[in-house]
Amino acid sequence: MPRADAIERRVRQRLAELEAAGLRRRLRPPAGIDLSSNDYLCLANHPLLKARMAAAVEREGCGATASRLLRGEREAFATVERRFATFKRTESALFFGSGYAANIAALTTFLEEGDVVFSDELNHASLIDGLRLSRARRVIFPHCDIQALSRLLVAEREPGEKFLVTESLFSMDGDAAPLRDYAALCRETRTALIVDEAHAIGIYGERGSGLIEESGIDEEVFLSINTAGKALGVGGAFVAGPAWAIDYLVQRARTLIFSTAPPPAMAAALDASMEVMVNEPWRRAQLLKRAGLLRDLLTEGGAPMLSGGSPIIPVMIGDNRRATAVAAALQEAGFDVRAIRPPTVAPGTARLRISVNVNLDEATLRRFAEALISTLAEIKACSAESS
Prior knowledge:
By secondary structure, this protein is of the alpha/beta class. It has 14 helices and 12 strands. It has helices at 2-20, 47-60, 75-88, 99-110, 125-133, 146-155, 179-189, 211-215, 243-252, 254-257, 264-279, 282-300, 320-332, 362-386, and strands at residues 33-34, 92-96, 116-120, 137-141, 162-167, 191-196, 223-227, 237-241, 312-318, 335-336, 339-340, 350-355. Helix 2 (47-60) runs antiparallel to helix 11 (264-279), helix 6 (146-155) packs parallel to helix 7 and helix 13 (320-332) packs across helix 14 (362-386).
């Protein structure tokens, strides 16, 4: 098979290039104290969620067996969608198998040829891919730059619909979009606002429904995409918005129509997650308190961090190999921290993405801060000697 040989040679060359640049990835299961997952509220192992999921597997089986428009629909999906829409203060919601699928669905369904979409330069890959797959003209604006965005929106004169797409809490920098300013600008320029709440849902707002709630702009947002595999502890994602928009997604969203439905047990576990959000609000408060403590400790130790107040704490390293070396040293010390490198982040901005969760107590955070600061100093000294 000469063609297969040629492909193999090309792939091996690409892998060698990744290795040389310090960018080759290897799959590694969890080991040590969790400082890298997105299970912010530690609901993935909550006894109520596990019990509801297990009971649903016994009742419904392991898989949905077909797409939701065929035999894959279950009452559990409709139940959790109604509950989530109430939680999010929208008319309706639709459940997808992943946040990626939900973003692709929302953007390819509503953005049409002749439209223009304004997208933050640091938006997640799933948003970028959804915009590329849509037929709308794309305008990328500098990260969270309201002045630049305002100039672009005001200057736009084409007759199509205008959309603004942003994350509410950015997954790699840990900072929040200026949602109130965006909502006001969208109102003035007749622009539809679409917000990805993947890393904010479950954490922010009086009820924990996200930064849209905390910003007080519930009525100003066209659609929100809400991943359920992070703070909510399970998987899948909800698109929430007006009933007519959700109905249109059912008719046109390819990632819904042409995908086998998620396991019904996921919906049952998410329904339990909604209960925990109501009954255990202390988790949100404790999470933000723990994140604040770790930021303070790292600031005191001179760690090079990006500013912000979220449970996502980026410690900037820069060099790819140095970032992996710091992560490896911390893993040896019993802390599960991972290096984030291009293309996930821009070249030259490799970092540790530290993710705080509610189960990390003060003593553990202090030990980790000491280990991180010490490791950074050691790596810096070694680099100075080698140069």
